[in-house]
Amino acid sequence: MSKKLCRLTLILATIIVAFASCGKEDEYDEDLLVGSWSATNKCSYVFHDDHTGLYTNKDGRQRDFTWSLDGDELELELQGYKDGSSTIITFTVYIVEDLTETRMEAYEKEDTSKTVIVFTKKK
Questions:
Q1: For residues 52 and 41, what is the distance between their CA atoms, to the nearest angstrom?
Q2: Which residue among 24, 56, 58, 111 sits deepest, i.e. has the most Cβ atoms within 10 Å of its Cβ?
Q3: What CATH number matches the domain at 26-121, 2.40.128.280, 3.90.1140.10, 1.10.10.60, 2.10.70.10?
Q4: pLDDT per residue over 4-25, tens digit each?
Q5: Do residues 46 and 54 lie in contact, with contact meaning Cβ atoms separated by under 8 Å?
Q6: pLDDT (tens digit, 9 = 90+) per residue, 69-106?
C-alpha cells in the first residue's frame, strides 16, 4: 500500500508541475518601460505612461506611436508615413526576453533569427 501511495504521489506531483508551467508567459511591469531608451539598432524610443511614445530612427526621422505590453509581447503602432492622401500605419511586435529598470532585451516577432536588440534606459 505504501509503495502505491508513493507512486501515486509522484505521478500527481509530475502532472501538477507539467500543467503549472504549461502556457505560462512572462509578465513584465509596464511601468518599467516609461522613459527614454536607446537601442543597439541605433534607434531611440520614448515611452510615456499614457501608452504613447516617440520613435526616432537612425537617420533622425521621428514617428509617434502607441504601445501595449501583453505578457512578453510589446506592440508598437507607429504613425506617420504619408502616401498620397493616406497615412501609413505600421506595427512592430517585440518579444521581450528581459526587462529591468535600466535594460530590456527583445527581438522582433517576425525575425526568424531572433536577433536580440538591447535597449538601455537613458538617465
A1: 21
A2: 56
A3: 2.40.128.280
A4: 655 656 565 555 555 554 444 5
A5: yes
A6: 999 999 999 987 655 555 778 899 999 999 999 999 99
Element spanning 16, H or E:
helix 2-21
- Look up residue 16 and give its amino acid: I
Cell of 96: 521581450
User: Would you call 84 helix, strand, or coil by DSSP?
Assistant: coil
Domain residues of the chain, as ranges? Answer: 26-121
Query: If you count them, how many residues does the chain have?
Result: 123
pTM (predicted TM-score): 0.74
